[in-house]
Amino acid sequence: MKSHKAVVKVMSHTREHESIAPLVEDLLRRLGEDPKRDGLARTPERVDQAMRFLTSGYRADIQKLLNGALYEVKYDEMVVVRDIEFFSLCEHHMLPFYGKVHVAYLPQKKVIGLSKIPRIVDVFARRLQIQERMTQQIAQTIQETVQPLGVGVICEAKHFCMMMRGVEKQHSGAMTSAMLGAFRDRKDTRDEFLALVNKSNGF
Ligand SMILES: [Zn+2]
After folding, report:
1. SS3 of residue 84 by DSSP
2. What's the 153 CA to ligand 1 centre distance in angstroms?
3. pTM of this prediction?
4. d(C-alpha 72, C-alpha 96), whole Å
């Protein structure tokens, strides 16, 4: 897969701030519901708020997020952050997909604060996504900002669009990976990462 630029604005700017509440009200009506009944009266507003949050990754500023969190060190062993939970929305159905991301990199002079890695995952998860692109974007962003010898990202996820509709395969998961630099070129590096990830209890 060719690299995607990490911080791409994909939304049109013009209508980005308009409330989607009226659309949700119309959606409820078209689904045969009564948007005025008690339980639904405030639903359009809630959906507006929820969707803003679930797509807040579009408005995140990676540079600002990582500000001051890069440290010069001599450490040159693999850094692994395993089992990072994420929740995203598939862009084909706007239904959730969720799971875990495992991230590793091989430092070269610089490391990044460990707590920043889950934050990077959130930036790309909180958008309309496909799992493959999200995995690639996380790897690419770490490669560009930390400039390590290589980055490996593995993502395991379950997709509601598969579980609730269509094939209705409740237990099927999808796995994607992105390997850059040493993780792509060196089998021993890749194997070390995979061994560390496989020690996890599974998903
Ligand atoms: Zn889907």
Report:
1. strand
2. 21
3. 0.88
4. 38
